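Progress report, Aim 2. The chain analyzed during this reporting quarter is listed below.
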Amino acid sequence: MLIIPAENAVNWRRPPWVTLGLIMTCLLVFLFYQGDDSRKLEGAIEAYLESGLIELEAPVYEDYLQRQIRFEGESERILELQDFQELRASDDSVWVAVSLLMDPEFYHYMQQNRELLWAPADRQRWAEQRGVIQDSYMDRLSANQLGLVPAELSLSDLITYQFLHGGWGHIIGNLVFLFLLGFTVEKALGPGKYLLAYLLCGALSGLVFTAFSVGSPIPLVGASGSISGLMGMYVAIYGLQKIRFFYFVGVYFNYFRAPALALLPVWLGKEIYDYWFAGATGIAYMAHAGGLVAGAGLVWLLGKSVFQVRDTFFEPEVEEQDERFTTAYAQAMGSLGRMEFEVAQRQFEALWQRHPERLVLLEHLYQLAKLRPDLPLYRERTRELMNETLTRKQPERLIEVWREYLGKGEGYAPLAAEDHNRVLFTSLRHDDLKAAEKAFERLRSCGDELLTTEACRLLAEEFEKRQMTPKARHYKQMLQAG
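Predicted structure tokens for the chain:
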């Protein structure tokens, strides 16, 4: 049974560049770095067969497997023993050599017990020839060089093992899950924090794997620990919110909704159960469990500092926002068409609060307020619209609204001196001298001496620049009289 979260869709207008970069890095490493492993292994097999070591090691390997089954209780190795015996009986020396070379635990066993396994002459020959094969070929395989080997743990291996894979099935499966989970977590955390969290989850899952495999020479490779970390982060980000999950059982698949965190113990329990009861499958169950705990833990412990979810993460996508706006706007316009002005006003006010970037909403509110110029709301909407048009560099609309208010609302609630001063400056910048002079007269009537003096000086200078001497003289005289 497979269960994965499927709450979001990819927004290709803002591609998940880090997730795509991780996918590309894993592919490039697999193709161009790990691609050389087959040549190294072929060289190792050829050298091994030429050395004649197969005659020394094959009987020891059968005895080793029998000991593992009898004394270590590893019943899952019975099939491995039967397969190896069949290979020897069929005289398939190549695959016998592969079995002997590709079992690092068996090599470690021979190193530890060579004094007991062979006579001195054979022991010396084995040490010399097997050592050369190991150094020249086996230790140079990608998994042994950059994989995570619990018996030889290094800090760099905690990062590098995440980009290695054991075959096409392994890498394709991991990269599909990396994409399905990664783009959502990247959107939630942002590219930089997402990359840090991804690598940190991989490192922590590697440490958990090492703790349960102390002294093991078998290397761990693959991004599954990091991806399990993404699963843990995914459900921790949503918390108790109900989200969609995709599930697949046999040939049947469907979706269901559940609180995100409810799936964390299910996933974790499955990995721990498989670790104890699934047998030797080659799957690093405890690395997966460690990744799940690490991912959820990072969000819970550092979710308000380092790995804080972006404020915009839970907002609808642009397309959904546009669709919601269109629906609500149509409803408000419908109320307006039915002349339900109070209802329309409430609807436009709610939209304006949610979409302050859409000036058309304020225009509607201004037009509604203009229906009652005797009420204070008309003055408030006029000043608000004047400020918005000035901010958005719409001088013609600013002056138009100002003139309209002078005709309809000035007799009920006069504008402030700064409102007229703003119109004066805007008019001069756009060569509307008539509006500038009218704004000055309104400014004078407000009784603000400081603003009036500065505006008068500005008008005198502007008219003098334009060589309009009578006008310039008029305002200079006004300055002197003041």
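Residues 352 and 361 are 6 Å apart (CA to CA). The mean pLDDT is 91. These observations will guide the mutagenesis work planned for the next reporting period.
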